[in-house]
Amino acid sequence: MSDATDDAVIAPPRSLAGDAWYDLRRNPVFWIAGFIVLMMVLIALFPGLFSSIDARTAACSLADSLRPPGAQHWFGFDKQGCDVYSRVIYGARSSVIVGVFSTLIAGFVAVLVGTVAGFYGRWVDALLARVVDVFLGVPTLLGAIVVAKALAGQDLGIWPVVLALGLLGWPTPARVIRSSVIAASHQDYVNAARILGAGNARIILRHILPNSLAPTVVILTIMLGSFIAVEATLSFLGVGPRNTVSWGTDIAEAQRWIREASFPLLFPAGFLTLTVLAFIMLGDTVREAFDPRLR
Amino acid sequence: MSQYIIRRLLQAVLTFFGATLIVYALMFSIADDPLQALAGERPLSASQRAQLTAQYHLDEPFVVQYGYYMKGLLTGDMGRTITGRPIADVLAEAWPRTIQLAAIAMAIVIVFGVIGGVFAGLRRGGVFDQTSLALTLVVIGTPVFVLGTVFQTVFAVELGWFRPSFAPELGIATYILPAIVLGLLSLATAMRLTRTSVVENLRADYVRTANAKGLPWRRVVSVHVLRNSLIPVLTFLGTEFGALMSGAMVTEGIFNIPGVGGRLFQGIRLEDGPLVVTIVSLLILIYLFVNLLVDLLYAVLDPRIRHE
Questions:
Q1: Is the ipTM of this complex over 0.85?
Q2: CB contacts, 8 Å: B145 with chain A
């Protein structure tokens, strides 16, 4: 107790990031969301650690069709007689891959376009703003359907979906980073660097970007969750990759037999919601911690 | 004001052609064999190939193809489905159902979302506020198709309160459960947005002035705070329109409603390429149009926008 008061008196004022971390450490939601995200990444990387049955190769027996959950098979069996638990575990991989890689693509394009537009301003900014408008005019899910449909004949796995989401998802974060870059480029330290003779590339990479990435990273975390949701929706609609275990496909399949049994639907649906929610909550708590207006 | 409208219209024209060009290019130039992509798994006979090539002018240069496609969309000549039915007929039958569904969903969003948001914002940190913040976050994190299938399972199949699929003999009542599913996502976001802007506006100078003048609290809230808080909600509803359309596709698909979204859903499942491309393009047109309308309305409501 006395330590805490001493700290408060002696400690120098914390930076915004320090303040944010101080808040985050005390926020249970942050830890819960972080834990779920970590678990999902682990499951996606090493599904074998979590399930002794490999859902991609396991033989399913119709004798087990729709057998309810039990001690041996926690989540029961689906209509085809496949173990629902192992399918849920192996389904995490495609969701996580799509989420991570489409976010990387969207983030890369967004940082590139947003920085160039914000730093150079004038006609470059005006031109890029129009390009952003055009891409915002295509709703993500609808655009992704068209891409997935056009490439359906070629067996490219989940990569068309990754590419489509990445290329349709960048405009929103690009707007965010553009405004942070504009704010950062009027700071004194940028002027100082320029007077000392730093070139544009150095100013952008060493001074502006490190100071303007935080809000974009937060938006991208939230978007990662929504990309996972879109990927599952595409699989649910039947335009996702074939021959891949995926939560969306399993939910679509289970929905057909909903009148006979609901558990094959509820388990993958629960995992999907939990994952999407974890990413959104993680981004949300970090954003709140970084937002000084809420203090 | 007129200058703003003209500038905004010019931008809309550009966005419109840009966005449709992207969709068209995605559909017809990234596929190895666009005809086979249109037909899905079906084997294509030589005469079907010839018919599709003629329908999409695939033997012409790309720009000409795109020109024909836009002309068709804008004049209502939308070609035929893969089974030969005119797409315009399919859509004429489907629109009314989708509009009914969307109208009920919108009413749910506005009534519960806005009223709930105002209550939560006025009593910030209260029990209602905390509960609704947590609940709306869960809804935002749940994909529409999960919400739809779970609601269908729980409320229609298990509890039997609703029919699990479209029943035209029930009239408007058949849309209630699908409309709740469709509206919930926007409702959650609208509620959070209303709450945030009510909270921010309660601290505004003009609220202090209104209080100091001795206006009754009810009037301060309903006239001063509410009016200013609804402006961002309006923009949100415009930009969320895209999500609402995707949501309609999934919801109508799940509940078997033969509306525009339901047709798109079936088109995807039955691999009816022409139907999918046409509906997607039309939805994008509507989306752009609604966004333009919202932007113009926004400028009317908030003079700061048009003077920037």
A1: no
A2: 232-233, 236, 248, 251
